[in-house]
Amino acid sequence: MASTSPTDIASGHWSDFWRHGSLTTFFAGKYQHGYDGPVAEFWADVFDSLPLSATLVDLATGNGAIPYLAAQAADRRQAQWRIIGVDYADIQVPTDPAVRAQMSQVELLPNTRMEQTGLDGDSVDLVTSHFGFEYGDIEQVVAEVDRLLKPAGTLALVMHHPDSAVVRQAKRDYQQTRMCLDQERLDRKVTRLVKLVGHARTPYQRDQLRHNPDAEKLRHQINRSMERLLQKVRGQEDDSQMFRVAQSFLRVFADLIDRPLEEKLDFIRQSSASLSAYAGRMESMARATMSQDQFDQFLGLLEGIGLKCEQSGLLQTADGELIGRSLVAFRP
Rounded to two decimals, what is the model's pTM? Predict the structure, then answer.
């Protein structure tokens, strides 16, 4: 079946992201400090089915959001679990002291392929993955799950759904970011203007450049880019990413107006690189999402290694917003 190659992750986009210390994929917003609601309830039910002595492995773990929930469940049940997180990227335990304390016994294995974990075969009671399993070579990951699981082992997954709010946002953010960077080249246009006027740090110096014809031409180009971008996103469900990208560059004319020229140029370079990396992550998320036909093929692969699907459905918020697919399969 078609799948996303793990080399997509090796680009470094995800390694760069996890270095920021986020616990989940969401650097800001509802889930940035961990999962709650229906997501947390799903994983609580999964962990409650484990014996008090068990080994669990989380694939494509990121900085360990699911091992974090597992560690909380182990404390609650006074269980002795070996909890391992595996990820292709250069992951680390988040810097938050409370999270680090909770995850003190969690083993994170960075720069490790989930298709070839290196862990002992027939040694794992539970394999989990949250918004991660589908990023790998599916057939190879299923084969690795087959190798790892004990005869009575369980596989539990939360996977992206093409119609989920998360995937829709990823597609929009990717599109809007690339429009700003590739089509309108906002970073380059702002750079040219800053090189011309960015050395002016006093009101008098700025006033002298106010009617500079070259500066006026560059300002007009930026304004025309903004007008075209506004036309392109008109009618979209959410246009906030376009504004975030534009505002990130235009900060040099506001928050950084009194800073040295080289500092302004360095800020634009860093912002451009960060936004490009973000677009790469959003693209990989959208590409990893399985269609219904691909998901049905995936279920067939699980049946092929002797796993019986006990639960498969959709995770939704209380107000009906689609989060993703959930699946629990076990060896009878």
Answer: 0.80
